[in-house]
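#structure-requests
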Amino acid sequence: MVTTLRSFSGFSVDDADAALRFYRDTLGLPARENAMGGLDIDLTDGSTVFVYPKGAAHTPASYTVLNLVVPDIDEAVTELEAAGASLIRYAEFDQDERGVSRSTDPSKGPTIGWIADPAGNVVALIQD
């Protein structure tokens, strides 16, 4: 068994400054530059995500890089729209006019919406 002191995940972006503005200013997460030229984003329960710049070598992740559980998805979408962002539309999901896929049966998935960061990585908003 590997003894660990802490754990964190990470993903890349093409522009660390744009990512900082998005995660800190648009999403309101505690995000800051770190000594390695990337970002640390503080999450709940003391977890962090390391966001590292890859410049032109960056390719957006083919999966959701971060899931944010929110108490009220409509309020979250309103705040994002006020910041100039809008939810992503996926053909395979039944989404309302705001881009939210609303579940009436939790066994078939949550009420959820997705937004892309400036590097094209997908962040999910999931209603608790």
